Structure formats: structure tokens, C-alpha cells
Amino acid sequence: MGLKQAICLAALATSATSRCYAPNPAFPVPSWPNGASTLRTAFQDLEKQYDTAIKAPKFENTSFSVEVTSKTSTLWSYHHTAANLNPARPGDGNVSPDSIYRIASITKTFTTLAILYQQAAGNLSLDDPVTYYIPELNSSDYTLPWKDITLRSLASQLSGIPREFAQSDIWNFFQDPTSIGLPPATGEGLPTCDEYNYYKPCNRSDLLTQLKKSKPVFAPNQKSTYSNLNFELLGLVLENITKLPYAQIIHNLIFTPLNMTSSSLTKPASDVRAVLPLMPAGEPNYWDVNEGVQNPTGGIYTSSRDMGIYLRYILTHYNALATGVNWFHPVSKGTGPHSFYGMPWEIFSTEELLPESRRPVTFVTKSGGLPGYYSHIYLLEEYGLGISLFVGGNGAVFDELHTPVTTDLIRAAEEAVWEDMQSVYTGRFIPTEDYAHLNTTLTLATSPAKGLHLEQFISNSTDVLAALFGGIMSAATSSHPRHHPKPKGQGDPWHAQLTPTLLHANETASSGEIYRVLPVLTQKPANAPVWEDDCVTDVDTMSYAGKAVNEMVFWFGEDEGDDLVVELPAWNVSLRRVGGREGRAMVVQKGDL
């Protein structure tokens, strides 16, 4: 082997030795047409599970709503009305998609979206210190390092400031705190609003006054920790920029344009659609609490129908809200190895969900909780799905409700996708008429374990999988032979998998789906070393005469039965599938709808 050839293979092997077993994305985002008919059985199974669950006594005082949406429409919903309601004030006695809940901290996503809109309009910069927009914080009365805390830090839970200023104080919940070992305290200087004063709304002055007494939990941008104060401050930023009250800002920017007619930051005038949990004797219903200056962190009232509208908007706009911002991307690590903070998302990525693949599934989520109200939204970018779960009543039912819709349903979606990919992309491909003189063929197959992959690629009578990709993986595995032993009696421990770029050769017409082929290790060995899980993305690994060696472009005809043509630009050939194609599909790569 010549020096240049060795260098070339070494460069490719460097990326191959990253332990990447299952590239993401593995398929184009499904569109779920015809009301997601392919998921009908999964939805029926979900309904049976919930029908069984609600027979338990813990559901007697609990109402809830679950909704699943695609990027274009609601696919399925389930609603349950508590058997026991307050006879003096029952609220909505027949929970439906239009029933209204308090969604608590999901409000933070609306506050952040409004901030992103202001960045897009040029009215602020995420990387400006918060002192630019709240001048009072420049005062020497504050000990928190405001000059080092940016709007991005606040939105990403990276400011390092405390969690609360008027909530979660043990002082308010024990008549005698010394009974649990705490020393006596006078309560001098504590707030005179919210939990400290029968839920009287706190105002801007209350917030800024209490912040003068606050000390940092961490240095700015050192480590994420959850803080409601971050979003209360972002609410003040929005008010200072727009000269409007926070509630009016959210109505003008989000509720009205999206036609979220059941959503508000003030209590609805009537209880007729209100989900009102049956509270313990003597406890007020949190439905009536005005959160005041804390509205930007947890004040919204909304319905599952309106939330579906909101989730559809996010699924179709998350990467087009402001220059340089993909709203779904993590910003910092959580404490768990699979958990991350976004702006302000709580992101969870797991390899445990798919039974036949190590491909991680990522949930972009936001949860919320207030007395009697528990809420969660989940966005799954790769599946084009959004899920909302609102509970009014007993929070102990939450796990029983969210597990089926986030595990069983996603496994069913995965199965449906691969059935579709099988019919749309797989088969044997031979040269089109212009290249009929070439001895070139290509075979594509699918499986949940290997995704869409090359089973065979002959170019000009040469076995490319053996000659090129085989050389790459040989260099990779020979440099670390103990990491990748070839199982006796089994095939090679790698395969050539296709990953969609979600781009098109012709973006104007959304035609010509661009994929990249990656040599991927198939198996994780037993007793793998620590670094086995190290995997960074490196897709554009090598070119030939200025063109990407691993690029494949799929061209679909306009009519049913038209040939599917695969173009390989670096190989200067186009191939058509033998036998045509089985109609349009839900996974044909398209732009946002």
C-alpha cells in the first residue's frame, strides 16, 4: 500500500474507530398521512391500557388529557373526567380537548419563544448581559454577578442563580419548624407575597428586592441548575423591550397568531371548561391563584387542543426561529448521563427504548407542576411527533399515564417506519439508460438493527464494500483488534448504513433526497472498554475529485410506479430500481409542511 493510500484510509479509520453503532437520523421525518393509519393498532392498545388504569381508586379524584400530534394534525387523544368533583364548584364535568388546565412550567417555553422572536427582530441579543435590559441590576446592592449572566444563560438554566424567591420555603409549611430539627427563625425580611401571604401576587418590586439578598448557587455558565427566577427575569426583559405587560406580549406574539383561543395568562372568566381538582379540605384551589411577576415561569392556562397547535408549530419551526439557534439542541449537561438542558427544554436521550437497535431516541420535553396540576410535553423530532399530558388531581398517576404513550407508541412508530422504508427504498438497482454499458449494481435493504443499508455495491466490476469500506473498517478494527472481535460463524462486524441529511439536491422543488453512507460497527462487544461509548459525528469523511464519496441522491418520479433513481455523484452513475416503486410513502423526505 502506498503512503498516500495509507494516509487516506487512516483518515477514514479515525472516524470509524469512534464507537458509533447506530447513526441518527436513520430515516426521513415521517408525515403520518391518513390520520396515522399505520398507528391505529397502537392507539387502540393505548386506549385499552388507559381504560384499565382508570378503574383504580387513585383515578377517582383525577382528570387527565393525553394528545398525540404529527407536524400537521392531531392523531389521537384520550380524556378522563374524575368521578369525584367538588359539588359546589365542579368545573368541567366532561373533560374534552377544549378543557382547560394550568400547565405550570411549560410556560417557560412560551417565554423563551418570545425571547427568540425578539432576537430575530433585532431587539435583543441572547448573548447580552441581562443588565442591558434590566438596568436596576447594575446596582451595587446586588451580590449576584449579573454582568456575567446573559439572556442565553437565563433561558438555558445556566445562570447559577437561586431557584425561587417566594416559594418552597419550609417556613411556610411547618407551624413549628423546630419539630424537624431546624433552629428558631424570625422571618424578618421575607417576602410579603405568594406563599408568605395567602398567595397574594408578587410584583416586580418584590422580585428585585428579594434578589438583593440572593447568593449564587454556581458561577454563571459553570453548571446548570433549575431556576424559576431565570424566567421571571426574562419576563421583565420582554416587558422592558416591548413596553407591554407580559400577558399581552404572549397573546400578541403566540396565542393570537397560532389561534390558541383557549389559552391565557389570566383565569378564564367562567369555570365551565375548567379542570378543577378536588382539593383536600381547607386548601384553596390553585386555579384561582394569580402568579403576578411569576407568570413567565408558570402562569399559562390552556387546553390540550391548543397545546397540539403549539407543538405542531414547534415541530415545523424549531430550526427557523432565530439565526444561529436550533431550539431542540442541548445547551448543557444534566446530572444524569442521558439528561441535558436546552432553552429551556429538559432533554432525555436513551438507548433502552428500541428493542432491536442501539440507536438513541431523544425526547425534547418540558414538565410543570402546581398544586393539583401536573403537565408534560414531549417532542420527538425524528418521528415528527408531539405528545402532551395534562393531569388535574393526583400526581401519583403520572408515571402510569406517561409510560405507555412514550414507550409503546414510539416502538410502534419505529416498526411502522421500517415497514414503510422497506417498501420505498429497498431493492436492486441497475444503471439507467445513459449508463447501461457499466457493470454497476447496488442493493439496498432495511432492518431495525441496521437501518437502511447497502447489501451490495459493484462499481465497474469492483466490490466497493470490500475494496473501500472494507479497507476503512479493517484499518479501524486492526488498530484496536480487542475491541471488535469478529464473532465466529457470523458476518462482518460492520455494515454500510445510509443516514438522511434532510437536504435536497433541488431545495426549491424539495426533490433529490440526499443521504450519506457510513461504515457502522454492528455489534458492541461484551466487556467493552470504557471508551467504547465515545462517538462523535463525522459524516463528510472523504471526497473523490471534489465530490463526496459517500453521497447518494434519491430521485422519485412524479407518478405512481415511476422508477426510483439513485444518483452517486462521485461515482458518476445513476441507477434505477428494478421493479419500480410501491407508491408514495410517509417517509419520503420533504420540507416543513
From TrEMBL:
Sequence ranges assigned to domain Beta-lactamase-related in this UniProt record? 94-396
The record ties this protein, via Pfam families, to: ARB_00930_C (PF26335), Beta-lactamase (PF00144)
Q: Which UniProt key words apply to this protein?
A: Signal
The Beta-lactamase-like ARB-00930-like C-terminal domain, residue ranges:
419-578
Membrane-spanning residues: none
Signal peptide coordinates: 1-18
Does the keyword Nucleotide-binding feature in the UniProt annotation?
no
Q: Does the keyword Signal apply?
A: yes
Q: Which residues form a coiled coil?
A: none
Q: What is stated as this protein's family in its record?
A: Belongs to the beta-lactamase family.
The name of this protein is Uncharacterized protein
Species, as recorded: Zasmidium cellare ATCC 36951
